[in-house]
Design a protein that fits this description.
30% of the residues lie in helices and 17% in strands. The protein is α+β, with helices and mostly antiparallel strands. It has a domain of 113 residues. It is elongated and about 85 Å long.
């Protein structure tokens, strides 16, 4: 499997591409369907694709964008290599492929820099030993059932009296 092959239901992978093209052409890739065409695929979820000039990241840089913005661990990133990248880039997350298996056939001006994996959330947790976490540990109180019934009955009686009064007023 190559870096340009997307497995079905792939998750947590970010592919970073350098866009060796004029700024106008790179901006055009933001248009619907243009990024998919540049990568040689049928369609992409444009919400999962970022296209921008590296200079827009200012002090954050690609290193910060990937680490802080995308959740890529520091051990996957080479700050010097990322700082050397200039011009426009395209970041494509796995979700852009909508769970489909595809093989990317990018335009020659779209060059894969690298792929990165997002840190996965560790959902494992230990047992909670506090008293409040035990089933039925909340105080058991009996609801006061008469108050809501009395209020509801009073509102219903008032509504009926208003209807009767309105009908009598119309008759007289």
């Amino acid at each position: 499997m190559s870096d340009l092959t997307v497995a079905p239901h792939e998750r947590g992978v970010i592919r970073l591409f350098a866009l060796d093209m004029r700024p106008e052409e790179a901006k055009f890739l933001r248009e619907p369907g243009a990024a998919a065409q540049a990568l040689g695929v049928e369609r992409l979820d444009s919400e999962q694709v970022d296209i921008f000039p590296v200079s827009d990241l200012e002090d954050l840089g690609l290193y910060g964008y990937l680490n802080e913005g995308c959740g890529v661990s520091r051990d996957q990133l080479d700050r010097d290599a990322l700082d050397a990248i200039e011009g426009w880039v395209m970041s494509v997350r796995s979700a852009a492929f909508e769970g489909r298996a595809v093989t990317l056939k990018p335009d020659p001006r779209v060059r894969l820099i690298d792929l990165f994996t997002e840190e996965a959330t560790n959902w494992a947790g230990g047992a909670i030993d506090t008293e409040s976490a035990k089933p039925f540990s909340a105080p058991q109180t009996m609801p006061d059932e008469e108050s809501p019934r009395r209020i509801g009955s009073a509102i219903l009686a008032l509504a009926i009296l208003l209807v009767i009064g309105g009908v009598l007023w119309l008759i007289l």
